[in-house]
Amino acid sequence: MKQKNFKKKLLFPFLIIVGFVFPFVPYLAIIEVFFLLIPFAIIFAFSSLYLLYCLIKTNKDVKKASFLFSILPVFLLSQYVSTFFVQKVQRLRSESIIEKIELVDANVELPEKYPSTLGINYARFDDYFTISYSCGFLVTEKYNSKEKHWERLGWND
Fold first, then answer.
1. How far is CA 113 from CA 123, 125, 126, 146, 151, in A?
2. How many CA within 13 A on the CB side of residue 27?
3. Domain boundaries defined on the chain
4. 121-124: strand order across its sheet
5. pLDDT digits (tens, 9 = 90+) for 39-64
6. Furthest-apart CA pair in the chain: how many Å?
7. Could you tell me the pTM of the whole model?
């Protein structure tokens, strides 16, 4: 019995960690969007019906039903939260890099490479540069210094 409760306690932190990583691995995002959307909807429908049934019948399975019902929303919510926070952090870090590069005198040549970490990509062209980062689910934010604006690119752009 203790082993079963221990596994239940580990399930939610595991789901949250996997949910935070899932949107940023392109292969997993493709699998989720194209192959798991319908199974997720079916699982959610059945778990919500099971929870409703347990609540109406007021039997002892209400805890189990609410546990099963909460698995999918926790997983999906962690994905949403991770993409939101990663986008905010990456935007702030990218803006800092842009500021540092654009503060340099206009007569000085743009750096060939710029040391950036954690998913921020710098690319130099003849008279401008671009900075991009992944927002999750195959969406990329890209800054073009020539036009001085951000652009959001989807998986098919």
1. 7, 11, 13, 17, 21
2. 0
3. 2-85, 90-153
4. 121-124, 129-136, 139-144, 149-153
5. 999 999 999 999 999 999 877 788 88
6. 77
7. 0.81
